Structure formats: structure tokens, C-alpha cells
């Protein structure tokens, strides 16, 4: 039985991870630590709020004494560290917060874990610090290049990727220097429910439903390797259970798509959904292009992102051969689940998008 701290558990992947974990391991204790930045949302944790073994603390991971106190007070033996600033475009316009949370925040947590688990001896041997990282630390690939392996040299290109790379190195150093029992997973682009609509897939879905333009950066021929978020949660589970301490594991979907193809695919899916389910027209009367079966007319090519990485692709042989990891969801089934979730939860994404979600949340939890 684990007693686990999940940092960033009110964000997109963190909340999906917590839903998955509490369903699989209802006897484990899960304490979510989240600062509730713009990306954190208590509504994301609704499915587990009533669970007797679930706890939530609003806190900043940079606050080392508070992190130590939480590890002691709740006798925690596992950290799954997801808290981060996560959006590349924001890292270009304002990198400081990325360095603060992703580098200093990760270091703060590492210090707290070392202090409580090793120095104070709470669980000197049986502990785990699992760090959730990204494939973006490896940089960019040309079309014919082989996919990233765990041996690929780090070459981060955005301030976001550089801050994640730095945090990966700190995690590694705490293992080699102080004997902290760590593992790291480097995952490709995730999609699924509770995804903040500043990222490509939820932005396209919600913009079509609001009949807003669909911004495609540059020529739209950049490639990303997409993974359904619950498959990422299953990958983290495998690393926690069977992964070797001190190792990195790539987690990916074998699912490379050009951005423009994803955008067109979502347009077609939504047009089809509106054509077959007439009730959608009443629920989304503003979705004029989708109702006309012409969502693709909203596609607008815009200026490219500075330093835009051309292609990411994950070689996940190590996690597949060593851990027996395979994604369960096909892209078609995953994107269908995702689209249905957004169609069924307009109150969630409307509130998040118009910035009034704190007000909405305050009412939900009054
Ligand atoms: P997200 O932006 O949706 O969520 C981040 C969460 O961290 C939010 O709840 C936020 O409130 C919290 N947070 C931010 N700063 C904090 C601080 N100082 N203290 C405590 N909490 C803080 O991000 P996400 O997409 O869910 O990503 C989670 C993790 O997975 C990140 O580490 C990210 O680098 C990594 N990752 C993401 C993807 C992806 O496709 N989204 C892919 C691979 C890896
Ligand atoms: P994003 O979801 O921001 O993830 P990341 O930058 O971490 O890969 O973007 C995915 C891809 O989609 C990336 O190549 C940038 C592109 N993109 C657009 O073309 N338009 C958009 O409005 C957004 C948000 C992203």
C-alpha cells in the first residue's frame, strides 16, 4: 500500500492520474498538492473528492518547509511529481515562472524528500520520487530521423523544455549524490478530458463549438506523437511498480500526426457528430460552421511559434520490453472519448476559457 503525494494533481495529467490511481488502488492514500495556478482546477478532482483516502492541500512546491511537513505529517512514501508550468507559448512570453516552478520547485521537493525520507529516516530504503517529464527535452527531429530513445542527448529548444531538462538533471543528481530513490518518465503529447483549452486539441474542439477561428502555426506540418492521458497514467504506474531506480523511461503512443491533419480530423469528427445527432445543434446553436458541416472553413494559418520544434517522436521500446507497457487506446477511440467529454462538459471549458472559472468553482464548493 502506498502513501502518495501527487504534485500538480489539479492539472490536466495530474487529475487524470489521480482518478486512475484511486480507482485501481482505493486503499492507497493520495494527497494532492497544487498551487491552483490558472491551470489548476478543483473541478478536475470532482470524481475523487468524496473518496475517504483522498486529501487536497493548496500549496506551492517551492515552499520546502511545507513540503517536508506534509511528507512527515501524512507519513508519505511516494511522490509523483507533475506540478509545472506546462505551456510552451507561455514560456516564450514569460519564462521566469517556468524556471521558478519547474527548476526551483523540483529542487525544493527533492530537498524535502531527502530531508524527511533519508536524513530523518522516515523511509530510508522504501521510498520513490517519480518525476514526470516530457519528450521535449530531446529537442527536435527531422522527418526521417529515428525517434527519441532514452539515450538521445538532451537538446531542449524552448524555455519550457530547458526548464524540464534542468529538472530531469536535478532528479538524476539527487539519486547519484544522495541516494534518493528516483525514476523519471519522458512522455509525448497527451490529450483527453480536463485538458486546458490553450493546448492544440482542446483549443480546436472548443473553438469549433464557439465558431471561432482555428489557429494553425506556420505551415501546420509539424509532427507530434499523441497519447491518451489515461495511457500516460498507466505508464507511470508501470514505472512505479517495475521501473528500475535511477532510470528514465520514454512513454509514447506510436502515433505521429501532422498538426494540420489532426485539425482536419477533428473538424470532420465534429461535422459528423452534428450531422448524426441533431440535439447538438440545439445545445450548440453558435457552432454555425459545424452545423453547416464545414468546420474546416475556420482553419486559419497564423504566424509560426518562435523556435518551433518540427517533430517529436518517441521510441518506447525500453518501457515496452522492460515493463510490458503498451498504450491501450487507439487514436480514434481516444479522440472520440475526448470529443464526447468536451461535448458533455461545456460548463467546464466555458468557465475555464472566459476566466470566470474561479467564480464558478467558488459556487460549486461554497
Ligand atoms: P497543467 O498545466 O495542466 O497542470 C500543472 C499543474 O501544476 C496545475 O494544476 C498547476 O496549478 C500546478 N502548479 C503549477 N505551479 C505549481 C507550484 N509552484 N506548486 C504547486 N502546483 C503548481 O500541466 P499538465 O499538462 O497536466 O502536465 C503535468 C506534467 O506533465 C508537467 O510536469 C509536464 O511537464 C508533464 N508533461 C506534460 C505533457 C502534456 O502533453 N501535457 C506531456 C509530457 C509531460
Ligand atoms: P501544444 O498543444 O501547445 O503542445 P506542444 O507545444 O507542447 O507540443 O501544441 C501542439 C502543436 O500544435 C505544436 O506544434 C504547436 C501547434 N499549435 C498550433 O498550430 N496552433 C495552436 O493554437 C496551438 C495551441 C498549438
Structure description:
The protein is α/β, with parallel strands linked by helices and 366 residues long. The protein has a domain at 3-192 and 227-254 and 308-330: Rossmann fold (3-Layer(aba) Sandwich), CATH 3.40.50. It contains 14 helices and 12 strands. The strands form 3 sheets. Strands 3-2-1-4-5-6-10 form a 7-stranded parallel beta sheet, with helices on both faces. A 3-stranded mixed beta sheet has the order 7-9-11. The two termini are 33 Å apart. Bound molecules: nicotinamide-adenine-dinucleotide and thymidine-5'-diphosphate. Nicotinamide-adenine-dinucleotide (NAD) is lined by residues 7-8, 10-14, 34-37, 39-40, 60-62, 82-86, 101, 105, 132, 134, 164, 187, 189-190, 196.
Mean pLDDT score? 96
**Topology pattern, helix = H, strand = E:** EHEEHEHHEHEEHEEHEEHHHEHHHH
The strand line-up of the biggest sheet is 3-2-1-4-5-6-10
- Give the biggest beta sheet: 7 strands, parallel
Please give the CATH architecture of the domain at 3-192 and 227-254 and 308-330. 3-Layer(aba) Sandwich
Question: What is the secondary structure topology, with strand pairs?
Answer:
Elements: E1 3-7, H1 12-24, E2 29-34, E3 54-58, H2 64-73, E4 78-81, H3 88-93, H4 96-119, E5 128-134, H5 159-178, E6 182-187, E7 189-191, H6 200-209, E8 214-217, E9 223-228, H7 229-242, E10 248-251, E11 256-258, H8 259-276, H9 279-283, H10 288-291, E12 299-302, H11 317-323, H12 331-344, H13 346-353, H14 357-364
Parallel strand pairs: 1-2, 1-4, 2-3, 4-5, 5-6, 6-10, 7-9, 8-12
Antiparallel strand pairs: 9-11
Helix pairs in contact: 1-7, 2-4, 4-5, 6-8
The structure holds nicotinamide-adenine-dinucleotide and thymidine-5'-diphosphate.
Amino acid at each position: 500500500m502506498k502513501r502518495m503525494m501527487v504534485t500538480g494533481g489539479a492539472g490536466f495529467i495530474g487529475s487524470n492520474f489521480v482518478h486512475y490511481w484511486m480507482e485501481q488502488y482505493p486503499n492507497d492514500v493520495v494527497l494532492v498538492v497544487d498551487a491552483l495556478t490558472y491551470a489548476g482546477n478543483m473541478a478536475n478532482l470532482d470524481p475523487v473528492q468524496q473518496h475517504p483516502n483522498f486529501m487536497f492541500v493548496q500549496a506551492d512546491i517551492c515552499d520546502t518547509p511545507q513540503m517536508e511537513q506534509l511528507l512527515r505529517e501524512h507519513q508519505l512514501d511516494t511522490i509523483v511529481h507533475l506540478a509545472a508550468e506546462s505551456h510552451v507559448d507561455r514560456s516564450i512570453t514569460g519564462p521566469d515562472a517556468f524556471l521558478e516552478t519547474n527548476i526551483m520547485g523540483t529542487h525544493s521537493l527533492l530537498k524535502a524528500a531527502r530531508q524527511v525520507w533519508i536524513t530523518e529516516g522516515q523511509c530510508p530504503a522504501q521510498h520513490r520520487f517519480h518525476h514526470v517529464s516530457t519528450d521535449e527535452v530531446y529537442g527536435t527531429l527531422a522527418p526521417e530521423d529515428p525517434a527519441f530513445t532514452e539515450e538521445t542527448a538532451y537538446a531542449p529548444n524552448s524555455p519550457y523544455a530547458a526548464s524540464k531538462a534542468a529538472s530531469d538533471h536535478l532528479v538524476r543528481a539527487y539519486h547519484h549524490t544522495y541516494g534518493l530513490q528516483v525514476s523519471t518518465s519522458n512522455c509525448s503529447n497527451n490529450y483527453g478530458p480536463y485538458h486546458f483549452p490553450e493546448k492544440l486539441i482542446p483549443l480546436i474542439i472548443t473553438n469549433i463549438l464557439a465558431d471561432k477561428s482555428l489557429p494553425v502555426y506556420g505551415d501546420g506540418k509539424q509532427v507530434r506523437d499523441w497519447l491518451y492521458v489515461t495511457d500516460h497514467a498507466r505508464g507511470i504506474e508501470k514505472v512505479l511498480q517495475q521501473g528500475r531506480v535511477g532510470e528514465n523511461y520514454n512513454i509514447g503512443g506510436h502515433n505521429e500526426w501532422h498538426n494540420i491533419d489532426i485539425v482536419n480530423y477533428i473538424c470532420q469528427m465534429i461535422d459528423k457528430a452534428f450531422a448524426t445527432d441533431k440535439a447538438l445543434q440545439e445545445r450548440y446553436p453558435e457552432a454555425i460552421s459545424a452545423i453547416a458541416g464545414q468546420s474546416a472553413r475556420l482553419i486559419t494559418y497564423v504566424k509560426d511559434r518562435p523556435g518551433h520544434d518540427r517533430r517529436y517522436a518517441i521510441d518506447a521500446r525500453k518501457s515496452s520490453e522492460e515493463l510490458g507497457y503498451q498504450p491501450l487506446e487507439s487514436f480514434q477511440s481516444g479522440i472520440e472519448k475526448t470529443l464526447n467529454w468536451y461535448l458533455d462538459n461545456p460548463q467546464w471549458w466555458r468557465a475555464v476559457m472566459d476566466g470566470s472559472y474561479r467564480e464558478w468553482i467558488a459556487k460549486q464548493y461554497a
